[in-house]
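Q: Structure tokens for this one, please.
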Amino acid sequence: MLETDQVSRSFGGVFAVRDVSLSIGEGELRGVIGPNGAGKSTLFNLITGHLRADHGSIAYRGRRIDRMPPHRRATLGISIVFQGARTFHGMTVLENAMVGAHTWTRHGFFSGALRLPPYWREEPRIRARAGEAIDRVGLTPWADRYAESLPLGQQRRLQIARALCAQPKLLLLDEPASGLRAEERGQLAALVRQLHREGLTMMLVEHDVAFVTGLADRITVLDLGEVIANGPPAEIRRDERVIAAYLGEASADA
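A: Here is the predicted structure, written as tokens:
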């Protein structure tokens, strides 16, 4: 479903990502881990279109997307959950989820802003789809609350609901467990596991090794911008290069 081929990106002559190749199959949950400065966020932003590669190519379902802007990638079925809680203040949980429908609605921005007839024809469908999305992430009891009033763990689930409202084929998650308490991480892991069982293809970029190894089918490990290992979680945990570069003490504690 997703393939990067020899993708590189440098800043000031220093490579943040260098010749990174990976291939994610349909229905797979791929983890991407690495120490701070390994290039995880750069790779994520190259795939989402928020950065452009210096070299290499990125393909989605066999189609080159590395020169497409982010909004065009979204219309192809790629949804993003960014690091940090990003909610629209002054809007309810349901309204926040409805924003994700922009990738498939037919009415334009002005039609929506001015509440013209095309908007009103689609609004019930958008509201229903958003309601289904927040139900999938367990937020229905909070549908009418302002999004900013939710605890961080619920705000993260709301971000996933907004992404699900876009009807994605590929879901990209950047450090979704960052800053969460143990209980919230457990709830998030259960949600990601359920979406995986339902067949959604995902790429999970994370610093929390235990979180990733408990969820991913395969893991790609970056260090200093390069892929140093790629394989199933059990194999990755035993890889001496991974232990030396990143796991070490975390491997012993997990």
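A few notes: The two ends are 31 Å apart (CA to CA). Residues 1-76+216-254 form a domain with the Rossmann fold fold (CATH 3.40.50.300).
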